[in-house]
Amino acid sequence: MYAYSPTAVPRPKEWRGGQHICECWFLDPVKDYQPEQVLLDFLAAGPLPVCIGFGSLIDHEREEVNTIVIDALRETGQRGILLGGWGGLGSSDLPDSILHKDAVPHDWLFPRVAAVVHHGGAGTTAAGLRAGVPGVVVPSFAGQFFWGWSVQQLGAGPKAIPLKFGSGQELLGIESA
What we know:
Elements: H1 37-44, E1 50-53, H2 62-76, E2 80-83, E3 98-101, H3 106-109, E4 115-118, H4 122-131, E5 135-137, H5 144-153, H6 168-172
Parallel strand pairs: 1-2, 1-4, 2-3, 4-5
């Protein structure tokens, strides 16, 4: 059983009968989820922000990635929501244009942002595609590269940018204002 959509990746012709594509698996919505007022206020305070989160980012790269993300948002004039995740993305010293949250349910947040910059995990990729917002995949290992390629092939985002990326502008997939 393969947990992805055949719209994203069609069934290979050479597969035997016992191999099945069974669509994406999504987490159940968080019952009675109520976003914090600070998040609602941030979303209402300006243009749609870019959501950035890398799941379980490797600890030794955390500060470098934080700096790149913050600089990229600043240089491009974008507002951002940093999802800390297991890897701890975010900083206590953020400008007012950037909000840090440890976690927000993707099914609630992603439809409320301009784009999602993420690691390319299967679940995060599926949630971004389901929300219908552009995805910028920054893979670091395993299947993340495949999902980055798939997002590009679907026209839902640019070519994946491996974790050893260059400028912050490349990370956001946009150019300076």
